[in-house]
Amino acid sequence: MLSKWFIHRSSIQNKFLISTICLILVPLGIFGFITLQISKSSIESQVSQSNLKTLGQIAEKTDMLLDDVIAVSNTFYLNDEINHAFTTEIMENSYEEAHLRAAFDRLLTNSIYSFGKLQYHVTLLGLNGLEQSTNPLYKNIRMRDIVNEPWFKMAAEAKGRILWITEPIPGLMPTEDGGRSTFHAVRISNRFETGAPTGLVMISVNATTIRSLYEGALDEQREIVIIGDDGRVISSQANGKIQSNVKDRSYYWKIQQYESGYFIDRENNTEQLISFQTIGKTGWKLVSYTPTKVVLSSLNQIQFIVSIVFMIVVLLSIGASYVIAKRLAIPIKRLYRDFTRVETGDLSVRTPIHQDDEIGLLTRKFNQMVARLNELMQGITVEQQQKRHAELQALQSQINPHFLYNTLTSIRFMLHKHSSDKVDSVIVALVKLLKQSISKHDELIPIEEEISMLRNYMYIQQIRQGDKLEVHYDLEDDIMPFKTIKLILQPLVENAIFHGLEPKLGKRTLWITGKMHGGDIQFEIRDDGVGMESTGQAGVFLDERSGDGQAAHRGGLRNVHERIQLYYGAKYGLTVESEPGVGTKVLVLIPAWYKWKEMNE
């Protein structure tokens, strides 16, 4: 439907504009969009690879940190004095207690000297009531109080291997700052003979220690966290996130399923580029969050500049297309408008020529065609006017002899019936009538003059018919100034008398009325004579070729009808209503025009 409208109904200007948009702007827009998407993917890939490289380095440092923790744990776990203290009853303030404290301080000092960058606490707990810790918050904690905790049982089942615990340890007090140590390395010391647990060695690493491994890789927009194998956050630069759980995140399964990788997902209601790397010794995950708006900030600037340039190109293209289309469409519209004027009959149209291209050539040919048509139409108009004048003269010549013959016949009869004075008055009336109808050459006369001729004629007929003919006039004064063609009422009255009233026996009546009728003028000639069989518009049924005795009657009506239509057009003329034995009514409709010029208009 749209293609049909575009091909068949849209203007040339619309076709040109739409074609420009489809052939230039749309491909350019698609190319720009694809280019930006490729650039976006490329930048995301580069940033992700850079993040993975950074995370890999942090993972290596974290593994080295874990090696140090293991080394510290080995220092205490493998020490004979510590293991002996786990199995020996030591009295408070005894030599054995002093010896144990000295050994503990020595081992701690050596560890601090060897691993000075590592911030940690060492806690030793024995079933025999031994308690040594560098964390003052762990005072008065007894091993017998925690042996039934699930984490303790898991550490015992590890048979001396380190159990890495990232969640808060039930039964132990939290560390400083109201937070928690990042993680704990827990080992259970067992009796060699029975494997029964004797003591606990726990290294609690401070949060700041592991955070220092990745703080240098952070900026204001990027965030790095370490997630344990249970989904809890072990370390984050925001303390509020520590121990929060990410298992409910939609992307968690990706992090658990793969060793490393990157993807885009939402975090904190923001679209993020998420990169992750696995820490080898523990299986923990290093996760980096970078908002995509930060990643694509440079691309966004480029995209903004490209968008501005694209909009400028679009505006320039549309503007140029509009100007060109307008230069094409306006001459065509002007030609169409002038064709319409020619169609309505205005042959004076000449379209100005402003260009020498194909449209200019077409305009020049159009002007030549209209000029030639004007010449032909003027010739045809003159020829038609001459022909119409000849036809009117022929019709007039048909009416005047007929009228004169009937009038002289009437006077001849009056010589036998009336006095010479009556005959003289009739002759005077005839002279006036002839003077008005024959001697004047004007085609148009005032209705008042047409009525005067009619009254002279009716005077002659009333003298001739005597008391048998009665005439009633009902003529409005408003119609008298208007002009009409000559002799349109007298022939109708003559036909009414000779063909309608005279064949009737007894008294005869004729009504003549004239009035305004909807902006036109209407006359009515009505008699109560013998009537006719045919009714309707005179030009339709009044045909002289009919073989009945009313041929002359029909011919007179037809001549008047044709004269009126030649002057005024097909809208005007005669309408006849007749019924045998009742009478005939002839309606005459002419326009209410004052002058010949107004009639032409």
Automatic annotation (TrEMBL):
PROSITE patterns the record matches: HAMP
Pfam families per the UniProt record, alphabetical: HAMP, HATPase_c, His_kinase
Keywords attached to this entry: Cell membrane, Kinase, Membrane, Phosphoprotein, Transferase, Transmembrane, Transmembrane helix
Predominant place of localization: membrane
Signal peptide residue numbers: none
Source domain of life: Bacteria
Membrane topology label: Multi-pass membrane protein
UniProt name for this protein: HAMP domain-containing protein
Subcellular localization(s) per the UniProt record: Cell membrane
Gene3D superfamilies: HAMP domain in histidine kinase (1.10.8.500), Histidine kinase-like ATPase, C-terminal domain (3.30.565.10), PAS domain (3.30.450.20)
SUPFAM superfamilies associated with the record: ATPase domain of HSP90 chaperone/DNA topoisomerase II/histidine kinase (SSF55874), HAMP domain-like (SSF158472)
CDD domains per record: HAMP (cd06225)
InterPro entries: Bact_2-comp_sensor_kinase, HAMP_dom, HATPase_C_sf, HATPase_dom, Sig_transdc_His_kin_internal
Domain HAMP: 326-378
Bilayer-spanning residue ranges: 16-36, 304-325
UniProt KW Phosphoprotein keyword: yes
Source organism: Paenibacillus anseongense
